Amino acid sequence: MLHKTLIKVRGYHLDIYQHVNNARYLEFLEEARWGYLEDSGDIEWFAKHGLAWVIVNININYRVAATMGHTLEVTTRFSQIGGKSAVVAQEVRIAGSDAVAADAQVTFVCLDQKTGKAVAIDGELRQRLAQHLSE
Questions:
Q1: Which of 16, 39, 76, 94 could form a disulfide with 99 if both were Cys (CB 3.0 to 4.6 A apart)?
Q2: Has 112 been annotated as catalytic?
Q3: Which backbone phi and psi does 21 adopt, to 5 degrees?
Q4: Structural domain containing residue 26
Q5: Family assignment (predicted)?
Q6: Number of folded domains in the chain?
Q7: pTM for the complete prediction?
Q8: Strand 51-62 to strand 85-94: parallel, antiparallel, or no bridges (unpaired)?
Q9: Of 15, 39, 98, 122, catalytic
């Protein structure tokens, strides 16, 4: 499933150079992931099964400066599922243009909320995550 989230760049997102501060992209990407989880129904599914997403690695490439007044379109999609982790690919575009402000690869594990340990991605969990690859 390809999910889109729109975010308006505000003055408080900017640094002294008047473009979006690099740390704000982490917030934009997280907002988009939450939107994805809400719209897919995964928040409820994970809660019902006592699981949580835990981010273990984020790699962000900054491409073009976004500035105040821009609307950013953040796309989120699953790109890979492994034995204990999965990867979500995200891209931040300046809406109305072909300009990519940033892109990221976000690796997460599924944590058992009772034990606090990462679980293997197999069985019903693998099926749930794999459906996102094919959508």
A1: 94
A2: no
A3: -65, 140
A4: 3-134
A5: Belongs to the 4-hydroxybenzoyl-CoA thioesterase family.
A6: 1
A7: 0.94
A8: unpaired
A9: 15
